[in-house]
Amino acid sequence: MVTYALNLSDISPQYLQGFFVGWPNHPNPEKHLQILRNSYRTWIAKDGNQVVGFINAISDGMYSAYIPLLEVLPSHQRLGIGSKLIQLMLNELNGMYSIDVCCDQKILKLYLRNGFSGCSGAIIRRYQNQ
Ligand SMILES: CC(C)(COP(=O)(O)OP(=O)(O)OC[C@H]1O[C@@H](n2cnc3c(N)ncnc32)[C@H](O)[C@@H]1OP(=O)(O)O)[C@@H](O)C(=O)NCCC(=O)NCCS
């Protein structure tokens, strides 16, 4: 059974295996955990002790928030876990003015379905820092 948690205190890097699928360089589980712990809010989805999905938000804590990462392990995709994580995060950010995310075009539908509007944006990605 998949459960959801906001608290990362019982998560260790060994439970964060298999993420960043397709990234040529990506954070190792230790760095991944640090990213999640340093975020303003992080929700995780767990199947037993294994983390199977996560979403994090960075924020000024009152007005604006940005969602840098959302991922569900391939074995658990298309079961509604990504949408549930988005909804849990939106609820957590209730009261904020802006909640932004940048995503590939193919994922946009998922966010539109979950209450976001489309917009244009501009980004920098320094792949050497991945
Ligand atoms: C995007 C992602 C988090 C969705 O998680 P999920 O648990 O499968 O999502 P849900 O089951 O709630 O919703 C499924 C919807 O997500 C979208 N989606 C899921 N996987 C997709 C894929 N591989 N390609 C395109 N769209 C996808 C579709 O809109 C899908 O709806 P559909 O099945 O009716 O086509 C997951 O596919 C993932 O981790 N992808 C790789 C990382 C990524 O792209 N993250 C987004 C960063 S902004």
Report on the architecture of this protein:
- The structure is a single chain.
- This protein has 130 residues and is an alpha+beta fold.
- 24% of the residues lie in helices and 26% in strands.
- The radius of gyration is 14 Å and the shape is globular.
- The structure holds coenzyme A.
- Coenzyme A binds next to strand 4, helix 2 and helix 3.
Query: Rounded to an integer, what's the Rg over CA atoms?
Result: 14 Å
Low-confidence stretches: none
Give the spatial strand order of the biggest sheet: 1-2-3-4-5
- Rounded to the nearest angstrom, the distance between the terminal CA atoms is 32 Å
- The strand count comes to 5
| Rough outline | globular
Bound molecules: coenzyme A
Largest sheet, in brief, is: 5 strands, mixed
Helix content: 10-25%
Total DSSP helices:
3
**β-strand amount:** 25-35%
SSE ordering = EHEEEHEH
Mean residue pLDDT = 97
Category from helices, strands and their pairing? alpha+beta
What is the element layout, followed by pairings?
Elements: E1 2-5, H1 29-38, E2 41-47, E3 50-59, E4 64-72, H2 81-92, E5 98-101, H3 105-113
Parallel strand pairs: 4-5
Antiparallel strand pairs: 1-2, 2-3, 3-4
The site of coenzyme A has 16 residues, from strand 4, helix 2 and helix 3.
Please give a quick description of this structure:
The protein is of the alpha+beta class and 130 residues long. Helices cover 24% and strands 26% of the residues.
Provide the descriptors you would attach to this structure in a database record.
130 residues, 5-stranded mixed sheet, globular, binds coenzyme A
